[in-house]
UniProtKB/TrEMBL annotation:
It comes from Comamonas terrigena. GO terms for molecular function: dioxygenase activity; nitronate monooxygenase activity. Keywords: Dioxygenase, Flavoprotein, FMN, Oxidoreductase. This is 2-nitropropane dioxygenase. It holds the Pfam family NMO. InterPro entries: Aldolase_TIM (IPR013785), NMO (IPR004136).
Length: 321
């Protein structure tokens, strides 16, 4: 049965109202093209397709240019690029170079996360690209501000999510309808959506689409190490710990050390910075050196019990195929 088109699928130019969320180190052309070929919107995240740290801004940008070209060689469907917006009004030199390269490469969808600013939005939208924006810690005020600045789609993130979680403890079940009522543009739900029940719940809450990260790590096309996929499949919420005020991990040796520091009221280290110094999500998730890093996932991993292909996953999430 054909899936109904909606204003969101029209804005995205996709068959389905589904976005594969960008994830540092654990996306690549293969995963992204597979999602887009399956009818969703695949999104390249930071370090897509690489397993070593770049040595300069220029190398970072040129690596992504190559990955964009590789993705285009694997799909004729739309796909997106992640842009991380830090605090300042003017995009920094890195983001200016990143977005300029993406526009040269004809990128049609930007997925920005962080602080909405007029200049960054203008830069991304100057050639008519579609802009999906996700505040890291959503509030009614910052969602409305992003809408006023020109976001085409907004993502409401619940505290259930994997990655850098919102600083507020606002869960997906309550944040989604709140944001749906607060803005006029389509709202996508994210945070803990791992199967068709989550997708149906998101629509019931008023979301017009789903934005899914963790579940795509555990697919055949994901570049995460097989041992990491297996670990997620055999783990549950009880195996997780907070490793910084805004990051969770499945327990590993490093995760336990970080969790201990988080509990220690004498600790003065910035634990997110410590995780960055360890290589971010690269050692634990991409390389499978689990004891040397963290494994960042959402709160719903008890229900992730298989490693399907992307096509199988998309079909089962949307009950199509
Ligand atoms: C391993 C991992 C890495 C992530 N890295 C990024 C990132 O680099 N940029 C970004 O915008 N969001 C990042 N996120 C957040 C996702 O884009 C998305 O918001 C989140 O995965 C959605 O929640 P879910 O994991 O419950 O599906 C990451 C999430 C995970 C699980």
């Amino acid at each position: 049965m054909p899936y109904p088109t909606s204003r969101l699928t029209q804005i995205l130019g996709t068959q389905y109202p589904l976005v594969q969320a960008p994830m540092s180190w654990v996306t690549n052309a293969r995963l992204v093209a597979a999602v887009s070929n399956a009818g969703g919107l695949g999104v390249l995240g930071p370090h897509a397709g690489h397993s070593t740290a770049p040595s300069s801004t220029e190398e970072t940008v040129e690596r992504m240019r190559a990955e964009i070209r590789k993705t285009r060689g694997m799909t004729d469907k739309p796909f997106g690029l992640n842009v991380i917006l830090a605090g300042s009004e003017t995009p920094d030199a890195f983001n200016t170079a990143w977005i300029t390269m993406a526009l040269e490469e004809g990128v049609t969808h930007f997925i920005s996360v962080g602080n909405a600013t007029e200049r960054a939005f203008h830069l991304m939208k100057q050639q008519g690209a579609t802009l999906i924006h996700r505040p890291l810690t959503p509030t009614v005020a910052n969602m409305r501000q992003a809408e006023a600045l020109g976001a085409d789609v907004l993502v409401a993130t619940g505290h259930d999510e994997g990655g850098h979680i919102p600083a507020s403890a606002w869960g997906t079940f309550t944040i989604v309808p709140t944001m749906v009522d607060a803005v006029r543009v389509p709202v996508m739900a994210t945070g803990g959506i791992n199967d068709r029940r989550g997708v149906q719940a998101a629509f019931a809450l008023g979301a017009e689409g789903v934005y899914i990260g963790t579940r795509f790590i555990v697919t055949q096309e994901s570049p995460a190490a097989q041992s990491v996929k297996d670990r997620i499949v055999s783990s549950g919420y009880d195996d997780m710990a907070f490793v910084s005020p805004v990051q969770r991990s499945i327990r590993t040796r490093t995760a336990d050390q970080l969790a201990g520091l988080l509990q220690d009221r004498h600790n003065a280290l910035d634990l997110d910075d410590e995780i960055r110094k360890l290589g971010g999500l690269k050692p634990g998730m991409l390389l499978g050196h689990m004891d040397e890093g963290i494994i960042s996932v959402n709160t719903g991993i008890d229900i992730i019990r298989s490693v399907p292909s992307v096509q199988e996953l998309v079909d089962s999430l949307l009950e199509v195929g």
